[in-house]
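just leaving the lab so this will be short. what follows is a protein written twice so to speak, once as letters and once as structure tokens for the fold. can you read through it and tell me how you think this chain folds. thanks a lot i owe you, the record is right below.

___
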Amino acid sequence: MSTASNWINRLERLLDLREMPQLSTRLRLLRLFQALWLRPNSLNSTLASSKARGSHGVFYVSFRILLVAVQDLLSPVAVLFRFTVQRPFKLLQFALGRATDRVVKSVRLEHRIEQASGLLTQARPVRWALGLGALTLFLFTAQASLPLAGQWVFILVCYLFAMLFKRMPERFANLCLMALTMLLLARYVFWRFTSSLDLESGMEMFLGYTLVAAEAYTWVILIFGFIQTAWPLKRKPMPLELNLNDWPTVDVFIPSYNEPLSVVRPTVYAAKGLDWPLEKITVYILDDGHRPAFEEFARQAGVEYISRPDNSHAKAGNINYALKHTHGQYIAIFDCDHIPTRSFLQTSMGWFSRDPKCVLVQTPHHFFSADPFERNFNSFRQMPNEGSLFYGLIQDGNDYWNASFFCGSCAVIERKALLEVGGIAVETVTEDAHTALKLHALGYNSVYLNNIQAAGLATETLSGHIGQRIRWARGMAQIFRTDNPMFKKGLNLFQRICYSNAMLHFFYGIPRMIFLIMPMAYLFFEQHLINAAAVTILSYALPQLMISSYTNSVIQGKYRRSFWSEVYETVLSWYIILPTTLAFINPKLGKFNVTSKGGLIEKSYFDANIAKPYLILLLINLIGFVVGLFRLFVFNTHETGTVVMNLLWCGFNLAILGAAVGVATESIQKHVHHRVRMVMPAFLKLPGGYTVSCYTEEYSAAGLTLAVEDTSGINEFSQVQVGLHRGDREFLFPAKIHFTENNRVEALFTNLTPEQETQLIQCTFGRADAWLNWQEDQTRDRALGGLKDVFLKGMIGYVRLFAWIKDGTVQLGNRLMGNKAQNEKWEN
């Protein structure tokens, strides 16, 4: 028996609280008390599962037992809280919600709001009077001085109003929640500047004003963000109201640099299937890698090939060179991994004929593979990814202000207007946004259609993801420095705000670092950053944070889980500080970096190099938390509230940093061809001539998983033909049965001709309905649920960190002891 098994058996005998030996009355009562608080079933199940896994040692089992013990120790408190606070609160919330619903329905509130809006639109003096009255009331409430009890009553009233607003029609509810959040923010800002900055020492003043500056950044981003998303336009596709002969010509550009042909090939095949007259569309591969294999592939696929003599200005230069050698009236641009659906042009081109000043139509960037956050936390398609907020809400909000901008792919641009601004912008490394800024400054319009018409590959690793975001951050800082939208001629006020917010967003690195380390000022050095009692701070800061989080959850919940922005920013903040700062000082620094796609991760590993900043910050916060506990019980018993507040702040930082560490553990990615879940009719042609009807469950460029009612006549490793439909046409593809089980069949394609590969892509990834139900598995966000999820991901991060430390310790020990066999095992 192994040492770990012996240790587990001894521990089980020691901690099995069901055994009652001959003990004194006092010890019996003690054991009974322990049995009530530390439930043996949880402990025994933990030990049993640990023994079943076998490979885990003493450290892992101890950690699991500690977690169970803490959970069971707090379980009576949790039950008490649930019955005395949580359930009554939920009943009150439910009752208020039902009452509000009845009021809204009985008074026909939505209809009355529409009537009032119509009257205000017609009566301009009344509108101005109401606006001035609302502003006066807002300013009076923001600066009104209330006693502490009055402040808490005000908070309760605001919360009840938030519950009321949520039950109202969606757009009106969002605006009311924004106004309520702004009111609480104004009260907090007024109190912050008038009552909390009377600090004593020079160091406290420096740290206190630094914290206020970081907070001020978040206030600006919040206000600009509310303006951006106040009224998402939610446009619908427009039909192209022209005779077929009058349809414009379109050039499809697919730029590539160092991506493998396996990534580019599906995009080219799908582009060939775009629903557009053949004589009016031309597909071009723009090869900046100067590869003969790509030129040969273009010839075989029947598309055009362009390769320029140099690589100046990267992607922007590549497209500009192609503009000189092509002649289409419109340019459709796709990154080489973005596979368009056949309906892309039919969906997007109608707006050009509807609005003569429209020169840009942008559609979302959608990804059918998991990004590092989704893959490493196994949350793919269970929650929105990092880009969902931008493409799902922000771009729609920008569109209302005519400020939706070009994103480099999945877009159509009018050639004439593009040439008028000198082609794709080359002054910065975010050439797409800069080009759109120039077009808007000339008075042109843009359109955003929140209708997924293409899908591509997400970044494969966390390091690749960070590298891509560094380029975006550097480019936005360059634009803000050289062509600042706040001062650019030709833009209206709201276009300036939308563009400025997009650029200011990437300056979050320094504020986020301040929030991660500022609690240590008090925990380490007892420096007070806010001159106010802890309960006063909470009475102003906590409601503002809670209501703003609640408002963001209501408005953004479909596109981003609450508190996940903090995780994303923590992961990236350290890495974007230097690029954004240098780009702002000297915009000519930096170069365009291509994001690699289509790679593999052969085995799971902890990327310690990427995780170094998180580990350092985690260690600082962990030490600060321990010091804070000493201050709470030993050194600063006279400042209990202040210590607890800093401990809570530090604990929140530890949860976020734990999640950041968890993301740095790269999961295995062994499939070159990513699988996509989709149900569509199919059929199998078996060797004997029989045909079996079935449905697809998953598909990829390499094979399919099929749902079949009866698999008895389907033999493994037999050669079959898989039938798929595109409209009213059927296509057959040779395949080999890989396995059959539980009414499921996996078939791998074999020996596909180029024509069959084209048909396969057009029947799967290129279908018009390929991405319609992509988010059907996702649940609506709840603010506290998002916080809980961040804490759980933080715990996962700590488990992974401890496992990495343990493995590294064992490996180091083996090397020091000269255990060559074990070393080889670790290295392999």
